[in-house]
Amino acid sequence: MAIQEYLDTHHVFSAADFSEAFPDSRTDQNLLTRATASGRVDHPRRGLYVSKTGPYSRIHANPLDVASKACEDAVFCFLTALQLHGVLHNITQRTQFYTAHRIAPFAYAGQEFTSVRRPDRPIASQGLLSPTGHRYQVTTTEQTLVDCLDKPNLAGGPENLLRSVGGFRYLNVDDLVRIAKNYSASLRARLGWVLETQADDWDIGDDVLSRVAESLGSGPYYFYSSKTPRDSHWSNRWKLYLPFPEQEMMSWLDE
Fold first, then answer.
1. pLDDT, greater one: 131 or 148
2. In terms of pTM, does the model score above 0.90?
3. Cβ–Cβ < 8 Å for 202, 145
């Protein structure tokens, strides 16, 4: 295959992909370097290329494809998971993904790419098929909810988090409680508050709420920040300080 044909049929590719297509070819590597220097190929970060020729000359690369080629074990999470599940409230130009590798943040075509170190505990993920036929690994709705409550700052803060997850129409409660067991009592307090608020919409029984409440310690816990200015609105059942008045936060989930 000639290099031009490759560039006309591969929008986003890694150095490993290119080497597999053109093994042991110094000439083709030099041609790729020249194509990059001339602007026919973008080079967002080491080992990652985006063709700008042929059918790709006037279209932007899908950020999900860019992240997937930057890191083959990428599992999309937080804001990107909310977006893929169709509930993200605020539009964002950030792509977030779990990986076992150390990937420094990088930017390309107006998009910020941020890796999150994959935790030692298991994470629940699923394959989602895009309209273009690509399959991407993304955290499940249950894992996404737990992750966002565990690290609200990575989910755009409390308001964006709640306005987004309120859009979930179904959650597997058994999976949710099982996942939450591997996290802190603080996370379970936040989760309990959200489940109680959404009990009718998500068909959450009192037995589930009691199980979560019984798993808590003495508290107190904080929804967003325990540092000054710390959360200051008290939720008694969950031994939880909220960053905003409870009724206001509940309204975010209902919208």
1. 148
2. yes
3. no
